[in-house]
Amino acid sequence: MSFLRAAGGQSMEQSQMAANLAMAEREMEMMGDMFHRLSQLCHSKCISPRYLEEHLSKGESVCTDRCVAKFFDVSAMVGKMLSDRGEAMAAAAAAMPQQ
Amino acid sequence: MSFLRAAGGQSMEQSQMAANLAMAEREMEMMGDMFHRLSQLCHSKCISPRYLEEHLSKGESVCTDRCVAKFFDVSAMVGKMLSDRGEAMAAAAAAMPQQ
Amino acid sequence: MSFLRAAGGQSMEQSQMAANLAMAEREMEMMGDMFHRLSQLCHSKCISPRYLEEHLSKGESVCTDRCVAKFFDVSAMVGKMLSDRGEAMAAAAAAMPQQ
Amino acid sequence: MDFSHLSQQEQAHLQMVVEQNQIKESMRIYNTIVDRCFTDCIKDMTSSALSPKENTCVKNCVNKFLKHSERVGQRFTESQVLMQQKQMEEGMAS
Amino acid sequence: MDFSHLSQQEQAHLQMVVEQNQIKESMRIYNTIVDRCFTDCIKDMTSSALSPKENTCVKNCVNKFLKHSERVGQRFTESQVLMQQKQMEEGMAS
Amino acid sequence: MDFSHLSQQEQAHLQMVVEQNQIKESMRIYNTIVDRCFTDCIKDMTSSALSPKENTCVKNCVNKFLKHSERVGQRFTESQVLMQQKQMEEGMAS
Where is the Tim10-like domain (chains D, E, F) (predicted)? Predict the structure, then answer.
């Protein structure tokens, strides 16, 4: 973030701004990563690897729609389980060696 | 790029230099990533996972050569298709959620 | 490392400090990556993907213990083979755990 | 994502970041397509040239990949909108 | 890892880095679990809602994943300790 | 890659970047080998020690991996050179 660095002394607003931007950037990156994973998973589940046709078949289209819906359901479920465990999650992070 | 930062006011040449370096660095990184993917793909296609021998067999060697050639052909073909669609590619990027 | 940048002229101790921190950070990141790979590999080797039960079975537990032991053995073996050959390779092996 | 809470200067900077992101995203799509279509279509290593069959397979694979991504993108966006509405309603209710 | 050779200021900074690392690590664990449990448990695409069977499978998958990680973590830490002891002994001997 | 258009100072900096890159690259190779050889060679979990058969398998796997990488590298470099020549010729022709 070169323009931030250029901006001499870091005032209160500037560091707030930097924090906002950093968060927006991270959010964008996370969205991109999620979309990538989702696409990969649903491609594997729904697209036949024989490629006799360049269009999505009816079956492939419907499968894709359902796959996306289920992916979000599973994501929400896992997210809830992890936050319910709160500490267990911290434990999982603590199982991470050498902090 | 700490030495660039150290260099007080950013003159025209300096920012040009930074841009050159950044591009060279990115190019190097891309080359490394491509080589890694290529090696992985051709290992999967050509190397028998039984490892009875430490040398490449004649068949594995020839397979590897052809695999590399085909990888570049497929890469070029995909690259051409994507740039021909130009906009379709932009569409693919636009399919990326919420920019 | 913004606080380092803030710290005006870079004294000898400061650049030493930066180097120490950078190394500690890299070490931490490497540990995290290694733990991730190890977990993934041993999950594939030991955990049945049918999930009829939420607890680790006796067999899965024992398998996991042995899997971790074997992973370290293979890592050490590969590290030794790489450092025995070539100098460029040796740098990598030296950076690795199991020094 | 809603960025209306950002200042004008922030939005200008974000614009630049978004563009860099798109380049990176395009590279990722390109690499993903090559990996997927190479893996699925290239089976025959008796020649170093692509066979007509492999050629057709790669073409279909690329087109199908893009159509699939587009469809996933549509569903993805819809889900995001739904989730945001739900969050807003919950916000109102409380 | 032993960080006692770092200065106090370094340790404060490291603390911050460690925290950021934990967030990144948690995200990685979350993504890995979703990918693994989705791949292993979601087989039936005749409906867009999770079946009771899929539901149970995901629950078991998540819990088993966490227990497995914990066990790997224990063995991992033990191995690290052993290696460090060995290194110290070798250091003494020389 | 041709870097002759860079200034001397740029080349010195690039040198450093190249070295850091090599370390990262070496780490990636090391990790890739361990993952591949562990996956392909370690099948038997009835003991926590490597069997002689597993031992031999890992040795062959590592050596074969390196020989394969080397061969891919040769073909890769040749292709790069060919492509640059082609680009130069096209540049001349236009």
Answer: 15-78
Residue ranges making up the domain that contains A87: 11-48+56-95
The answer to whether residue B75 is domain-embedded is yes
What is the tally of structural domains in chain A?
A: 1
Nearest to B98 among A5, A6, A31 (CB): A31
**F9 alpha-carbon distance from chain centroid:** 28
> For residue C5, which residues of chain A lie inside 8 Å, CB to CB?
5
**SS3 state of residue C2:** helix
What does the pLDDT look like over E15-48, one tens digit per residue? 888 888 888 899 999 999 999 999 999 999 999 9
Secondary structure class of E44 (helix, strand, coil): coil
Burial status of residue F23 (CB atoms within 10 A of its CB: 0-12, 13-18, 19 or more): middle
- Please give the C-alpha separations between residue A38 and each of A44, A65, D76, E39, F38, in angstroms, as whole numbers: 10, 12, 9, 11, 28
Q: Assign A93 a pLDDT band (cuts: 50, 70, 90).
A: low
Amino acid at residue number A55: H
CA dist., res. F91 & res. A40, Å (int) = 39
**E61 contact partners, CB below 8 Å, separation of at least 6:** C51, E33, E36, E37, E40, E41
ipTM over 0.95: no
A58-75 tens-digit pLDDT: 999 999 999 999 999 999
The partner residue sitting opposite C3, judged by closest CB among E3, E13, E79, is E13
Nearest to F70 by CA among C87, B68, B53: B68
Instruction: Return the CATH number at B82.
Output: 1.10.287.810
Residue C4 placed within a domain: no
How does pLDDT run across F22-81, given as a tens digit for each residue?
A: 888 999 999 999 999 999 999 999 999 999 999 999 999 999 999 999 999 999 999 888
CB distance A97–C31 less than 8 Å? yes
| Residues of F (19-48) whose Cβ lies below 8 Å from C | 22-23, 26-27, 29-31, 33-35, 37-39, 41-42, 45-48
| In-domain check, residue C35 | yes
Closest by alpha carbon to C21, among C37, C9, C5? C5
User: What does the alpha-carbon distance between residue C91 and residue D15 come to, in Å, rounded to a whole number?
Assistant: 41
